Task: inverse folding
């Protein structure tokens, strides 16, 4: 299965991606996680990406597209993958379409997790993440027991770009640059939509219903 997850920052893409990846045995590819790993390792890619991420801006398309193409050519992607946080611009979406076409492949669905803007601030400022495996928690909605990641035991932290000011900027960037992808995939008959305001397990059930019917 080849799935992309769409939705504003804080919609719950990363949270649902972990469960989808387990259920369907496909790798979860989060461009945000790849950038953060590079930042923590101080690689040239990380140093370049940090300039944009800290300000809530998108990393330039060329850098991001090349990084994703490299990742999708790795062995574990042969039987499908789940993209989280990519594409985020029409140009990234077109590159992905070209990449798939060259391989005679296609997406199964672009799954939009729909959450209104007024839910997002509380979700993002209360988010805590595992710096080792990228798992997402929330101080109120999904607390990490004793502040430790339940998957790998690392201490969870707050992301530097989850401050109120940066969140507002990221939401503006989403509306300007990423929202047009909803029509892009609708026109290709690939869009499916799930209501993301319900509890985490209820959203997952709805996602499984959708994925059961697209395959
Ligand atoms: P994204 O990957 O789309 O940016 P996350 O999956 O990291 O979003 O979720 C953002 C925050 O909201 C996290 O703190 C997460 O624990 C919390 N969260 C995710 N889904 C829900 C939900 N359905 N209800 C309440 N909180 C949620
Ligand atoms: P995320 O973890 O998905 O919230 O992404 C964190 C940050 O990484 C974003 O605010 C962007 O700065 C950067 N980023 C992640 N994915 C992309 C992408 N597809 N294109 C450009 N920048 C991205």
Result:
């Amino acid at each position: 299965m080849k799935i992309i997850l769409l939705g504003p920052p804080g919609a719950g893409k990363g949270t649902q991606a972990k469960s989808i990846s387990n259920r369907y045995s496909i790798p979860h590819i989060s461009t945000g996680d790849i950038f953060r790993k590079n930042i923590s390792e101080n690689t040239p890619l990380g140093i370049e990406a940090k300039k944009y991420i800290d300000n809530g801006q998108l990393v330039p398309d060329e850098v991001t597209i090349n990084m994703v193409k490299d990742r999708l050519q790795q062995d574990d992607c042969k039987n499908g993958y789940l993209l989280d946080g990519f594409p985020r611009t029409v140009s990234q979406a077109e590159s992905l379409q070209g990449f798939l076409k060259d391989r005679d492949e296609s997406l199964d669905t672009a799954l939009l997790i729909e959450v209104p803007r007024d839910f997002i601030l509380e979700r993002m400022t209360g988010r805590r993440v595992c710096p080792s495996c990228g798992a997402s928690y929330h101080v109120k909605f999904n607390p990490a027991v004793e502040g430790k990641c339940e998957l790998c035991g690392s201490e969870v932290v707050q992301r530097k770009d989850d401050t109120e000011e940066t969140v507002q900027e990221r939401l503006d960037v989403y509306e300007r640059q990423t929202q047009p992808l909803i029509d892009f995939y609708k026109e290709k008959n690939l869009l499916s939509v799930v209501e993301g305001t319900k509890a985490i397990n209820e959203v997952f059930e709805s996602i499984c219903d959708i994925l059961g019917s697209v395959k």
